[in-house]
Amino acid sequence: MKAREAIEAVAKHRGDAVAVCALGMAANEWWAVTKGEDAFYMHGAMGFAASFALGLALSLPKAPIWLINADGSLCMNLGCLLTEASQAPKNLKHFVVDNQIYQTVGALPMVNQGRTDYAAIARGAGIVRTRTIESLDELEREMPKIASEDGPSFTVLRVEAETEFLRTPPMTYEGPEMKYRFGRALEKRFGIEVFGPQGY
Amino acid sequence: MTRAIDVNEKIHEQLKNSGVTLAASLPDDWVAPLINRIAADNTMRHVRVAREAEAIAICSGAFFGGVRSVALMGATGLLTCTGELATLNLRHQIPVFLIVSQRGSIDDQRIYQEVQGRRTIPLLQTYDFPYHIVNRPDEIASIPDAYETCRLQKRPFVLFITRKLVKGDTA
Description:
The complex is a heterodimer of chains A (200) and B (171). With 200 residues, chain A is α/β, with parallel strands linked by helices. Chain A is 41% helix and 18% strand. In chain A, the strands form two sheets. A six-stranded parallel beta sheet of chain A has the order 2-1-3-4-8-7, sandwiched between helices. In chain A, helix 2 links the parallel strand 1 (18-21) and strand 2 (39-41). The radius of gyration of chain A is 16 Å and the shape is globular. The relative contact order of chain A is 0.19. With 171 residues, chain B is of the alpha/beta class. Chain B is globular. Chain B has a six-stranded parallel beta sheet, with helices on both faces. Helix content of chain B is 49%, strand content 19%. Chain B has helices spanning 2-17, 32-39, 52-64, 75-80, 82-92, 114-127, 143-153, 163-167; strands at 20-25, 45-48, 68-73, 96-101, 131-134, 156-161. Chain A binds chain B through residues 20, 40, 42-45, 47-60, 63, 77, 79-80, 82-83, 86-87, 175-176, 178-179, 182-183, 186-187, 190, 192-194, 196, 198, 200, and chain B through 22, 24, 45, 47-51, 53-67, 69, 83-84, 86-88, 91-94, 151-152, 154.
């Protein structure tokens, strides 16, 4: 299964989920497939999309929050799994695109390449619903269940390591504009106040 | 002990007056009594984290859920978060309010806090992160203004609590 195919299969079942994407490949692919403005695409803080998504999920407990993480990012903040397990938000689903390489910076191998079982780590941290999906057929079959079950869940998407430099372009807006587009989209949809009366 | 309870009660109260309903924390011994108070408060969601930068990102996510939050940590923890504060909060102009122990002060003679004492404020100045030092109980009332300044300046804001504040003159 290629990363693009996995993202397409996940995105197809997202319904009205709000996505939070780790920087690099995960964000770029999610943008390419969905063009979604009700998604937050991290530009930095590698590893911490997971914590951002948790904060969002705890603040909007009725909103489905889907975290599109990647193996490189997860490894920078494995502790996020403990925090996720301890808070146990029913509305949070954690996906990890596991290509075993640092794709965006030139497809260099991940630390401990090929030997890490991320689902086992998540299970060990206390997340009950964990799985590793190895093929597109299996992903297509499992997605309706993953989409409908309570969180927190943790799904590893084992994808091919593509040796070509993946040049999927990032979203076409950045930094502060992303903040305002995302915040305004959530204000409109959930009737919340992200920005005050003076706009900050 | 009475003083510590009073001071932390007042900080807690001013956080509530600022509209804070979520706290993410990793303890330092000066901040621990405040964390314990908040953890016992059912009206405030408390998230214990495994690394301080998690608290920063959790508060940043909460911002977009319309929830006011605070990150609680020690000065050493703050130093570990500078990359995330720069590339998440400065990059996207996301406010995050931190309460941090001002370790390494002249009355904090711990060798392992010495660098934090000398370099934390110059580091914040380099990043252009505003900060405010609360040294006396009567200054705790400044928290709502500090919180609003954080929102208005759209960046990390560090509210330091000093040894004198949390331990008193004689401790």
